[in-house]
Amino acid sequence: MTSTDFKDHFSQGSAGYVAHRPVYPKDLVDQLAAISPGHARALDCGCGNGQLSVLLAERFDRVDATDASAAQIAEAQAHPHVRYRAARAEESGLPDASVDLVTVAQAAHWLDLDAFYAEVRRVARPDAAIALITYGLWHVEGDVDPIIQHFYRRTVAPYWPPERRHVEDGYRSLPFPFRETSLPPMTINVDWRLEDVIGYVGTWSAVRAARQTLGVDPVDAFAAELAEHWGDPAVRRRVRWPLSLRVGHV
Questions:
Q1: Counting runs of H as helices and runs of E as strands, what totals does the chain give?
Q2: How far apart are CA 53 and CA 133, in angstroms?
Q3: Three-class SS of residue 59?
Q4: Do the beta carbons of residue 54 and residue 18 sit within 8 Å?
Q5: For residue range 154-189, what is the model confidence (pLDDT) as tens digits?
Q6: E strand or H helix that includes residue 41
């Protein structure tokens, strides 16, 4: 498999991904740092625009952040302790036994896991931590939530790639051949305006697939219906994504 042979659902919308994706909670990084054998180096695979990478850099001396999409890397958030590189997770290019923590946030379901896990074992220090992180199901406070759930579960449901099922089951169906541990429950919480919610939905791979198939943008009708129930579009509502984690030691 070559470096460009991957399912690229996100390069086309990389700028929107930066603007509209939620940020991981700081507690996640604190918990991962606590179970890592050291804090010299972390590897963040499938890093996208570096949302988790820059948080890891607050607890690790160096973060190597890789993504197979050069477009995503081009949009990544600069940080003095983060080194970004366009590379597949299965071919990190790092030295043997050099990493205290390996993370994959919202991307493990796209990987060749056998090859990725072999790479993890190669680059991991003894007892290094590994974390597969995902968020899928989300809820918005108030009477707008049924509209959002209908759009997700009905309108664009046929257009999600098959790998989406792994996100919805919290990665429980993915193989995880490591000594597994658990972390306390964590949730991404944001207070979003109407435009933030619409912008986030526009980053979904299912929405892009629906646009191409239908020749119309399903977000238009969704946004109009949502606006009717939202009220003042500047009003912020609490949005929640429970995190699902597979965490262990190599």
A1: 10, 9
A2: 13
A3: coil
A4: no
A5: 999 999 999 999 999 999 999 999 999 999 999 999
A6: strand 41-45
Q: What is the 3-state secondary structure (H, E, C) of 213-226?
A: HHCCCHHHHHHHHH
CATH architecture observed for domain 14-139+161-189+243-249: 3-Layer(aba) Sandwich (3.40)
* Residues paired with residue 86 on neighbouring β-strands, in sequence order: 67
Domain layout of the chain by residue ranges: 14-139+161-189+243-249
pLDDT tens digit sequence for 107-131? 999 999 999 999 999 999 999 999 9
Please list the alpha-helical segments (H only) found in 9-163: 14-20, 26-35, 51-56, 70-74, 113-123, 145-150
Task: Provide the pairing of β-strand 41-45 with 99-105.
Answer: parallel
Question: What would the two tokens of residue 12 be?
Answer: 């086309």
Tokens in use for 124? 């991991």
Q: Which residue has the tokens 């597969």?
A: 132
